[in-house]
Specification:
Helix content is 39%, strand content 24%. It is α/β, with parallel strands linked by helices.
């Protein structure tokens, strides 16, 4: 088991319950897709898992270990908006180098070699290290965000609506790239999205969230073809425009 999440709870000021006892796990090589409407708690879950938001209760373990430093090396996150997730004051070199603070024994030469390698992996030219985020398109910025995530050679990528802000053609290119990266690097994905078509393509397991709770969890084909929860049926009918048998 690469990631174990047990009983996560989070309530924001005003009594908004974003997470209500969320439990799930991800096995190595077995992508998990998390779907649900906006505001259901998906992004809060991702941020709690990454340690960006403190939970009120529950545990997050990497291979059974709570050590956060190793977690931050092995689990990286790609955010929804590439226009805000990359610091506009930093060059590409500085953006990629920042991730290497988790690799203190790496030399400057080794760091540069890894930068060039990850740029190759996301299909970006090597000669862009001196350029800045505003010089790139939205799709290119998201490739750079993925490159930054790859700098620590992670085992698991959390992708929070990572293609939702891109046009359809660029979405397809990024999805194809993610599939190729997984085959080449043997990574695991936790793909969070309201886009059920993309989730169905990338994920082997599906979790369905509403109101801060996981209401359905299982193999992709079982969830999409034989949904057990009424909310899941509603999502699928809205996304694919066909009736799902109760």
């Amino acid at each position: 088991m690469i990631l174990q999440v047990e009983g996560l709870c989070k309530t924001y000021p005003g009594g908004v319950k974003a997470l209500d006892g969320v439990t799930l796990d991800i096995r190595a090589g077995e992508n998990l897709g998390l779907v649900g409407e906006s505001g259901c708690g998906k992004t809060t879950l991702a941020r709690v898992v990454m340690g960006l938001v403190a939970p009120d209760a529950g545990t997050v373990l990497l291979r059974g270990n709570p050590d956060r430093r190793e977690f931050c090396r092995q689990v990286r996150m790609v955010f929804q908006d590439p226009f805000t997730s990359l610091d506009p004051r930093y060059s590409v070199r500085e953006i990629l180098k920042e991730a290497l603070t988790l690799e203190p024994r790496m030399t400057t030469g080794e760091g540069l070699t890894r930068m060039r390698r990850v740029l190759d992996q996301v299909r970006m030219p090597r000669d862009i290290l001196a350029r800045y985020p505003h010089e790139f398109s939205g799709g290119e910025r998201q490739r750079l965000a993925i490159a930054r995530a790859l700098m620590t050679e992670p085992s698991l990528l959390i992708l929070d609506e990572a293609v939702s802000s891109l046009d359809v053609l660029v979405q397809k290119e990024i999805v194809l790239m993610l599939e190729e990266l997984q085959q080449r690097l043997h990574m695991t994905y936790f793909f969070i999205s309201h886009n059920l078509r993309v989730v169905r393509r990338l994920s082997r397991k599906i979790a369905v969230m509403t109101g801060g709770r996981i209401v359905e969890y299982g193999d992709r084909d079982a969830v999409f073809d034989r949904p057990a929860h009424p909310y899941t049926r509603t999502l699928i009918q809205a996304a694919f425009n066909y009736e799902v048998a109760p």
